[in-house]
Design goal:
The protein has 282 residues and is of the alpha+beta class. The chain has two domains: 148 residues, Jelly Rolls; 50 residues, no CATH class.
Length: 282
């Protein structure tokens, strides 16, 4: 560990490769703290251009790291109707829900609940179009509120949508959109940013929820460097700035990071404990 560099720690924390490195370290070290630790097996993935091969293959995401994650938005979350008089969704069958008393499709909303800053690249929704006249419509919508002026201004846009026209029965559809970074609040412009899923169903169509797939990412680097020895052009600039902004490190001095200095086990304990939020036993 005495030969480890701060730069290496930055790369390890940014890639969250700690668990994957443990078996190698255990095989080469006499440290008994490493011997009992086993790495979790990698989750098998199907080949193809989709990040998950099976609908519903959305593992619970770790609270840290850059690995892929998934969130299920249940139909019971769609509690915000487009019109004030719309009836609440009610259970139909097999955990699919419908809009009772709605002879034509009625819109309902649910907030897209993913980690702030996550890169969302796929949303798929399940539904049952059992109607000969009505279709199911789904969309991913983006809302902003700007508080920087004398009065707040609001805008909205659709990032992508689907319709069940021509696809009757129980099936699912992808909402096609360009991958986006889910920001909740932008401090620089005082803009709140919210993402909502919309589903339009009637009393003869039903809806089973949506899956959102995403990947965490390192936060964008600032325009000005915090440390003189890790300038803007450094290949590790974004990762070092992310460590500082997260409170994981404050540098070796007020203005330097000392990227080539050796890392002690005491310093490693500080870095990892702050990065992972260790340790609450309940």
């Amino acid at each position: 560990m005495n030969s480890s560099l701060r730069t290496v720690v930055v790369m390890v924390l940014a890639a969250c490769a700690c668990p994957a490195m443990i078996p190698v370290a255990a095989a080469q070290s006499d440290d008994l703290n490493l011997k009992p630790v086993a790495a979790s097996p990698s989750r098998p993935r199907a080949s193809g251009d989709r990040p998950f091969g099976v609908l519903g293959d959305a593992p619970q995401a770790d609270p840290y790291g850059l690995a892929r994650g998934g969130a299920f938005i249940s139909p019971t979350k769609f509690t915000l109707p487009l019109s004030a008089g719309a009836p609440p969704l009610t259970y139909n069958t097999f955990h699919y829900y419908r809009s009772p008393g709605s002879a034509s499709p009625t819109g309902y909303f649910a907030q897209l609940d993913v980690p702030n800053g996550a890169l969302v690249d796929l949303v798929t929704c399940m539904y049952n179009d059992s109607s000969v006249t009505n279709n199911v419509f789904g969309a991913l919508q983006y809302y902003t509120t700007d508080f920087s002026g004398a009065s707040a201004t609001q805008t909205s846009s659709s990032l992508g949508s689907f319709t069940s026209s021509g696809t009757p029965g129980i099936t699912f559809s992808y909402i096609n959109f360009a991958p986006f970074t889910a920001h909740i609040f932008d401090d620089s412009t005082f803009v709140t940013q919210q993402y909502y899923l919309r589903i339009d169903i009637a009393n003869d169509t039903s809806f089973g929820g949506c899956y959102a797939f995403y990947k965490r990412q390192t936060s964008p680097a600032p325009a000005v460097a915090s440390f003189t020895d890790v300038p803007v052009g450094s290949p590790f600039f974004a990762e070092v700035e992310a460590l500082k902004a997260s409170g994981i490190t404050s540098g070796c001095t007020a203005t330097t990071y000392c990227p080539t200095a050796t890392l002690t086990r005491l310093q490693m304990a500080i870095f990892l404990s702050r990065a992972l939020g260790l340790n609450f036993p309940y």
